[in-house]
Amino acid sequence: MKFIDEVKIQIRSGKGGNGCVGFRREKYVPFGGPDGGNGGKGGDVIFEGDEGLNTLVHFRGKKLYAATPGENGKGSQMNGKTSENLVIKVPVGTLILDAESGNLIQDITEHGQRETILQGGRGGLGNAFFKTSTNQAPRYAQEGEAGDELEVKLELKLIADIALVGLPNAGKSTLISSISAAKPKIADYPFTTLTPNLGVVTVDGDSLVVADIPGLIEDAAEGKGLGIRFLKHIERTSALVHLVDCSMLIEPFEAVEDYATVRSELLKYKDAVSHKPEIVCLTKIDAMTEEEISKFKEAMEEHLDKNVLVISSVSGRNLDLLKRLMLQTKQVKKEEDGESLRSERNL
User: Fold this and answer.
1) Is 162-346 a domain of CATH 3.30.1330.10?
2) Which of these, 22, 33, 219, 328, is most buried using a 10 Å CB contact count?
3) Tens of pLDDT along 215-244?
4) Tens-place pLDDT, residues 74-98
């Protein structure tokens, strides 16, 4: 299925039904009076989160989504039916933005979450409503209220616990296929991954969602390469796993430079993204000697002033440790967010 994470659509709520001009006509009731019913309310436009969707591709080919109008009122004081609401299902993680101003209207973050974006028009009043002591036979009724119309931009930001980042061909797709059931395309050339991939990783009876983000290159934050299209998918994650491929490098400083390139793009894109908790991993070590591995690991730890984990997606080396570290990072971040929320409520 094609991955689409941005679309623009036009939405329109239903017009209210018109009120009815009617008069009671029955045998032996010559002056029955007005009995026109009210029109029904038009349908609302509602967006609903659906965890079964992971792309906006189903919006391609259709630009207008319109709710049905309310039913017109009828004689004998019969009110028109209220129209059914139009429910538009979107993936969890979808932002609904005003296409013209770019302002955020709603953020769909949970399965089953429903948000009414446009209200349907109110139904018009029938002539029975306008009867008074001085106007016993009003011959007019109210028209239904027009529905609203709006162009919205839907923007999907994947909801994952951990994002795998790194330069193209750093081993992200191979890693996610090794630690989860995800089966992304894998080949030995840059930009094999053209769309984000999600995988569910099970750890000690718990689970977490990992996103494989297409490789970043220098100046990705300015629109170069593929990275700028997918940097937004990192925003909701709890932490980053930064993969550095050292298999084709000669000196450790090259690995440090590769690491710095990705970190620079994250910082330029959004400062908050660059400050997420990070696990740094050296990948593709299978063809290296233990001496070479130690040399790269020690140099990286010295320059970055943080621990560096050596992993192999082929042999499985340290993958169980990596999964436990990811779960631990997720749990710590969740506790910190909970503490922060409680502090805000106490202010």
Assistant:
1) no
2) 22
3) 665 544 444 445 556 677 778 888 899 999
4) 988 899 999 999 999 998 889 999 9
